[in-house]
Amino acid sequence: MNVFRLTGDLSHLAAIIILLLKIWKTRSCAGISGKSQVLFALVFTSRYLDLLTAFISFYNTTMKVIYIGCAYATVYLIYAKFKATYDGNHDTFRVEFLVVPVGGLAFLVNHDFSPLEILWTFSIYLESVAILPQLFMISKTGEAETITTHYLFFLGLYRALYLINWIWRFYFEGFFDMIAIVAGVVQTILYCDFFYLYVTKVLKGKKLSLPA
């Protein structure tokens, strides 16, 4: 495992912990898109079904279990425990416009036409756009809490580092995965505007807002 993948995993874990702590400490999920979190839970569920069929390493298994567990814990907090604080009026992105095309693409473009491989491919494609409901929600409300922007920053950093990881593996291991690289590029591009606002506003102590 190279340093870019490890740092990417840690950034991803940091994002998840930041979000869970934010919800738990404030006893509120205000400003958090439940739809994005459901999509991420779907991403991890479909990607890590290989937990039932293969063992790669203790680290690999542990991280997969943590991602799945935290994803469903977040969904539970939003839609059950702190449901009264969930802002469904602004969380209105039509997720079917993401899930259906992504599902079709996974059937058409994959490495191997087998159930687990199609589900893995589906998860890669879906993860690249799963943050859109959250960004759409921020654009509708006009601003985001600072702690929410930290969550988004580390989530975007995780994907950017993973993109570098794929490049590293190509040059030093001869491993090339076009599906993962293209999806990573798409996801990183979606974060570009946010990264700019994060650096120019949040890091200077200002509130972040996206153009409506």
Keywords:
212 residues; 8 helices; mainly alpha
What does the model show?
This protein has 212 residues and is mainly α. Helix content is 71%, strand content 0%. It has helices at 3-26, 34-47, 58-81, 96-108, 115-129, 132-141, 146-173, 178-200. α5 (115-129) runs parallel beside α8 (178-200). The radius of gyration is 17 Å and the shape is globular.
Short description:
It is built from eight helices and no strands. The protein has helices at residues 3-26, 34-47, 58-81, 96-108, 115-129, 132-141, 146-173, 178-200. It is 71% helix and 0% strand.
Helical amount among residues, as a percent range?
over 70%
Summing up helix and strand content along with how strands pair, one would put the structural category as: mainly alpha
Query: If you compute it from the alpha carbons, what radius of gyration comes out, rounded to the nearest whole angstrom?
Result: 17 Å
**What is the CA-CA span between the terminal residues?**
41 Å
Number of H/I helices: 8
Strand % is: under 5%
Unreliable spans: none
User: Quick one: overall form?
Assistant: globular
Q: What is the β-strand count?
A: 0
Order of helices and strands: HHHHHHHH
Give the overall average pLDDT.
Answer: 90
| Largest beta-sheet details | none
